[in-house]
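Journal club prep — side note

Before the paper discussion, L.F. wants everyone to see what a predicted structure for a comparable chain looks like in C-alpha cell form. Sequence:
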Amino acid sequence: MSLSHAVIGMFVVGMTLFNSGPASSQNYPSRPIRLVTSEPGGGTDFAARTIALGIAGPLGQLVIVDNRGGGSNIAGEIVTRATADGHTLLVTGGSFWVGPLFRKTTYDPIKGFSPISLLVKSPNILVVNPSVAANSVGDLVALARAKPGALNYASGGIGTSSHLAAELFKYMAGVDIVHIPYKGSGAVNINLIGGQVQLTFATVASVASHIKAGRLKALAVTSAKPSTLVPDLPTVAATVPGYDTGGATAMFASPGTPAAIVSRLNREVVRLLNQADVREKFFNVGVETVGSSPEQLAATVKSEMARLGKVVKDAGIRVD
C-alpha cells in the first residue's frame, strides 16, 4: 500500500469515528423508547404514562411504560446498566435520590445517570386533628416545645415523603414529636381522624376532602413559596425559615447518554409540561408541573441529598 492510500484510509476511518456520535444523535430515536418506572397505579406511574403519551408523537416512536415493583432500586438498576443511547429511560420519584441516604441501593443517583428534567412537584400539607390546640405553625411549635414528646405524628412508613417532611420539621423547628409509622396514607388518615395521632405531613390529594369536611385541620403547605394547589394556606417556611420539602418526579437516562439526545428529550418533555391541558391534568391530581433543565435537576438531586442527609443522620433513620 502506498503512503497516499494509507493516509486516505486513515482519514476515512477518522471521519467515520468522528461522525458516529452526531450521526447516532441525529437518527434518535431509532426504535421504541422504554420508560422504566414504579408499579402501576401511583403518582409516578401517572406521570410516566402522561409523558409517554405526550412525547411519542414528536419523537416519532412508540414510548412504552415498563412498570417495576420493588421501589426505585430495581428500576434504577435497570436504567443505570442500560446502553447509553436514550432508548431506556427512568421516571422516578424523590425516593430514588433520597433512598440511598438510609438504605443500601445498587445505583449511585448522582454518578449513575444522565439527568433529563424535573417533571413535577407535589408539596405536602401539615394537617392536625381538629382537637389539637393549634391554628397555625407557630401555635404547633409552641405546643410541641411546651410538651416535649406529647405529640405524635403519623407517616406512611420509614423513609417516605411524610416521614422525612416531619423529621425535617423537627430538626429545623427544634421540637420533639414522636414518630408513628403506618403502611400507606389510608391508615394514616384513619388514625389521624380518629385521634390516635395528632398530625401528619400529607399529600394534597390524600387529605383535600377531609379538610373540606372539617375532619382535619390544615395549618400550612411545605413548599418554600405558597402553592397554587392550596393558595389559601401559608407556608411552613413563614414560621420555620428555610423549610422546604415535598414529593417530586424526574426523568433520567443512562450514564454517558450523548448530550444531543439528552437535549432532545429535555426539549420535548419541557414543551409537553408547558401545555395548558397537561398542566391542568396534573393540577387535578394535586401536582404542579416543573419542566427543568438537566443542570437544574442535577443541582436539585445534590442539594436534596446534602440537606436531608443531615436530617437522616441526626434522626438515625435506617432501613435494612
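L.F.'s comment for the group: The first helix runs from residue 3 to 26. Keep this in mind when we get to the figures.
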